[in-house]
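Why does residue order matter? Because the sequence determines the fold. Keep that principle in mind as you read this record.
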Amino acid sequence: MRLSGQRFLSVFMLFLLVSGFLAAEKLVLWTWYSTESGEILKDMIQNGFTAKTGIEVEVLLVPIEDISNKLLLSFIGGDAPDVVELYSNQVVELGVRGALLNLSTFSDIKQVTSELNPMLLPPLKYKSALFALPGEINWTWTYYRTDIFKEMGISAPQTWDDIRSTATKLKARNLDTFYYYQGDALVVGKLLPFVYQRRSDIYNKEGTASNLASADNIAAFKELTELHTKYKLVHEDPSFTTFGTGQTPLQILQNWYYAGFEITSPQIAGKWDIALFPATKQKDGSLDRTNTGKMLTWSIVASTKKKNAAWELMKYLGSTEFTTAFMQTNNKVVQNRIFFSNKNSLENAPFPKEKIPLAREALATCRMQTAVIGGFVANRYIDFAFNKVVLQGDDPEVALKQAAEDSTKEIQRKLKEFDRYIKTL
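Structure:
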């Protein structure tokens, strides 16, 4: 049957309208997940998100070390993605500069964040603006060789006093103890738990100056540096080798090392275990086990023309459905054991069931570094102070007070640089 010219035109216009609607609902997502994990992500979005919503998603791999600068360039050039995966320490400065959307503007944001540990949000917020949602998370806890500890009559360390005592006993047998933070701010990541366990922070509440020179933070810094100067914890260690050989049978590391030890040292299966992060005993006798770590996060780029569709994708990526399936599939394909910040998915993590309560408490006591403008650069002054004390023998209080002064100058310099952006928040 032949269509009349008018009817043909109507059908053609309807086709264009529908095609345009569908094209408008195609999102671009940048991720650093590569090879097998990247393919798993693509398949899950295709079969789990697109199949239900009709929103197409093009998933592109961008190496994590390039993603921040590349995002700014693409944002300026007008070809930025709609959703991007970032490290948590990259989020706030990008957000304040206007490159990331403020997620607090969505009406259901409180419902979404209620499924998260609230201590994971400070690195993603500035004032009332929230620029990302946490995704994969790495907290810190303790690994120890049960066979060596049993032979020496040592129990799993629960506090920093236990760590010091155990390190001394191990050193008497020429064995080592290793405390390490894997991330951009190596020393800051080791210092923060000592600070947080004293109910303090390294910045003032307004985020306008360093708080390193406070009495609590000086005590925290001394406690950290003495682990190396007095108790001889090693500065560097090839963990996967030395844990397997037993040379370093006590190591305080992030959770992703668990699968690493399983893969690299199958010969010690059943001869090692984990414990919660070392605690500081409080005045009331309670133990504060606050640890820190790092996160991958998801953000919506401010230039997107598909804000609502991007928000639906963000919610999917943080959902119990996605995080549970992504963890389990990665474990089957890649043999890793990853965790997500969604509290509900933790129960179904690919992890020994008897260890899930430890993981639950580790997540609940994981506090990320507070974000301040200029903090990313200011962190280096803590590194300088640590090296002065541990490598050169300088006085820790003098070194940290200098770091406080230099950090404040950097923060205030950055605040002036960002002032025109901050006024718009």
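Residues 8-24 have pLDDT under 50 and may be disordered.
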